[in-house]
Amino acid sequence: MRDRLAASDPGLLRLTAGLRTVTAIALTLAVLAALRVPVPHLVAGAMAAMVSTFAIREKSRAQQAVTLALGLPVALASVSLGALLNQRVVVGDLFFVVLIFAAVYGRRFGDRGTALGLIGFQIYFLSLFVHATTAVLPALYGVICVAFACSALARFVLLPQTPAGTLDRLRRAFRARLAQLIAVQAELLDAGPDAVDKVLEELRAATARLHETALMIQGRLEDGTSDPAVARLLQRRIADAEIASERLGLLLLTARSAERTDTLTLHLPGAHLPSGGSLPVRDEATAALRRDLQALRLLMLRPVGEARGTALAHLRNRLLGYREEDNLPKASPAVQDVFRGLGEAARAALGLRVALDGAQDESDDSPATTRSREELDAEDAAIGAGEEREAEKAEPTGLGRPTTRAAVQVAVGSSLAIAGGELLSSHRWYWAVLTCWIVFINTASTGEILVKGYRRLLGTVLGVVAGIGLAGLVGHHTWTAFALVLVFVFAMFYTAPLSYTLMSFFVTAALGLLYTLLNTYSLSVLVLRVEETALGAACGVIAAAVVLPIHTDRRTNELLVEVLDRLAGVARAAVDQLSGGAGADLVEQARELDQALADLRAAIDPLTHPITPLRSRRDTARYVVALLETCAYHARSLAATAELLPTHPSIAADPRLSGACARMLRNIEAIAAHVADPRSAAAIETGPSIASMLEPGTLRTPRYGRVTDRVLRHLQRLDEAVSGLARPLGVPRPGADAGSGSGSGGRVKQVT
Questions:
Q1: What's the rounded Cα separation, in Å, for the pair 464 and 442?
Q2: Secretion signal: which residues (predicted)?
């Protein structure tokens, strides 16, 4: 259960956020109840404790403390202005719009600016919610101070979270998700023809979850380790384990099919195994493969305290022996490749364990294990702290800056929401403003705002239905209602990264209980909340579409160009190093490519959403992203292999690679140029395969499956995937009409 929890919530980030917020609210309610404050002040205290806890996102405890200290005067000033302007409709509305603009604009100052802006906005909203007046301001000051103090107690004393501790939990989550992926791969062995597609979907999901955890670790390495060399070593070992496990899955798919499986099968939703087949259930090699997959899962998952003894050493030695062609079973070449892949995965597991858990007992090592340790030690010695390679990009200024544009948009949208909300209700118009504000958070295009508004409206409608039932059950049982509110707050934070609809559902259900506590509950109030939510979402979409719009196609084009630029950079650096050129921080560059691809995947979410009416466009967008994920996989593998060059005995530089791969690199640049400007004359080049341009020599070895032979396979697959991108993106080919691409995708605007 611990492993499942660690895998489902990497780093326990969602669990910690939910528990910390609930603890802060519970402490606040306990203190205020002891002081016998009225129920409206209890509600205000609970809301203040919640915002002062979730708004602060810095990783350093010292930075968190400073932001929390600065947030208290901001909150006091905000509630004061809310109470003073509550009865002055025009002036109050104008100030609210200015406050919203300032809060969104503050995001340009990083996490602290975002937190202070969020506190200012939410506390002003709190004053409207509890109908604060100047007469109750002193009491509200005390309530807010208590809430901030309880938030600090929950954050720094009761549920502390350090960068090093978070990184350690993320590493355990990575190991657990790695074991889950291997378990799914084992299921693939025995899956019948009717179940293989379902297992393949599970394999894709498990691979994606492992990649997500690897990216999360990458984002925490700098703050969670004191030594840059240690951070770089961890980064490298995690990349090795991820690549080895993904390669093992591809080899298993190939062994199950009658022909070699393309990497795209792992990345394209709905793709099927070519020429579906299955492995013999009672075959001796299949039985050994099933046994060794379980052994590999055990090696990946077993904690360091339980990883000693001759039994585990025997398993490790047997798996690592497959790297040296020891005891390969009599089977087809494809099945033997799986055993070699097991050996590479076992080596990655060994490197990961040494990097995470330190030195181990080597008394039971076999010669193959000893050689693997020597290779890992040589690689570790060659890993340096790394240097910054590029200067920071110049940021746009004025209205071109994303924070400025978003601030203007949300200010206009909020003005529309205030006007429309006042027409619906002169007392609860602020719900429309809140929705308009929220749909702009963490969104960058009109499509993203539209989808987020739809999800919030759906969650609100479902929450209203739940609120009606709960209000009838709870009645005026104050502490029962507060207990349920705490449950919903925890559920809200725990589900927020998974489903915005679920989060909106729990928020609305909790608000129904708060209305009951304030004696303002009625069916008409909850129906009004749905109307105000729909109005706020519509105002947000209108503002995003009319005021300084960033259309989804423009946003995705920009991110697609960035992904292609990162891909070209990683491929060029890897090829240069494999050709004998100077070394570079390839693993870091590969991670930057992965992050750019993750941003693109998030940006096309509106285009791939189930409700989108443009089915063909959705399928094309998915296909393009799947091809890019295939390219990223091969680029990561090349980067990891190139970094082995100085220490690995089976790899030698070959200067011919640079010339053989020049066409592929030019094609990536041509596709990026076409996406950036569809009128560009850039076209992709065609020609013989990379493998055919290289005569047997340094890179080619007679032993199929060796690391050196994989270099050519990765380059060949990358070349094929890059060429495959040209058609859906409408990039012309030699001898083809430049405009012919539009029929199969045309501009990226048509694709995405």
A1: 25
A2: none
Helix and strand counts by DSSP (H, E) for the chain: 29, 0
Helix (H) or strand (E) holding 103: helix 89-105
Which phi and psi angles does 133 have, rounded to 5°?
Answer: -130, 170
Torsion of CA 11, 228, 648, 689, to 10 degrees: 70
Which token pair is 47?
A: 């809301």
Summarised one tens digit per residue, pLDDT across range 174-196 is 888 999 999 999 998 888 778 88
Q: Quick one: pLDDT at residue 464?
A: 82
Cβ atoms within 10 A of the Cβ of 292, count? 22
Place of tokens 């949300």: 410
Residue 371: CB atoms within 10 A of its CB come to: 16
Binning the chain into helix, strand and coil, the percentages to the nearest 5 are: 75, 0, 25
Neighbours of 463 (CB within 10 A): 28
Q: Report the first-to-last Cα separation within the chain, whole angstroms.
A: 41
What is the DSSP code (8-state) at residue 35? Answer: T
What DSSP designation does 261 have? Answer: P
Cβ-based burial of 589 (10 A; exposed 0-12, middle 13-18, buried ≥19): buried
The 10 Å CB-count burial string (b at 16+, else e) for 397-422 is: eeeeeebbbbbbbbbbbbbbbbebbb
pLDDT at 393: 47
Q: Of 146, 140, 145, which is closest to residue 126 (Cα–Cα)? A: 140
Give the Cα separation of 95 and 58 in Å (integer).
28
For Cα atoms 506, 512, 514, give the angle at the middle one, nearest 5 degrees: 105
Q: How many CB atoms lie within 10 A of CB 508?
A: 25
Handedness of CA 369, 370, 374, 377 (dihedral sign): positive
* 594 contacts 636 by C-beta, under 8 angstroms: yes
Q: Which H or E run includes 708? A: helix 707-726
Residue 502 has pLDDT above 80, yes or no: yes
What is the total residue count of the chain? Answer: 752
User: What confidence score (pLDDT) does residue 183 get?
Assistant: 92
Give the residue from 415, 502, 405, 403 showing the smallest Cα distance to 456.
502
For residue 276, list its beta bridge partners: 257
* Mean pLDDT across the chain: 82
C-alpha atoms less than 13 angstroms from C-alpha of 719 in its C-beta half-sphere = 22
Q: What is the pLDDT of residues 669-728, one digit of tens each?
A: 999 999 988 888 888 888 777 767 665 444 444 333 345 667 888 888 899 899 989 888
Query: How much of the chain, in percent, has pLDDT values that exceed 70?
Result: 86
In Å, how far are 90, 104, 124, 407 from 99, measured between CA atoms? 14, 9, 9, 10
Q: Which token pair is 100? A: 């919203």
Backbone angles phi, psi at 386, to 5 degrees: 80, 160
Read off the tokens for 713.
């396979």
8 Å CB contact between 273 and 196: yes
Tokens of 219: 């984002």
Tell me the range of 61-70, 311-320, 612-621 where mean pLDDT is highest: 61-70
Q: Which residues contact 57 (CB under 8 A, 6 or more apart)?
A: 111, 114, 115
Task: Look up the pTM and report it.
Answer: 0.79
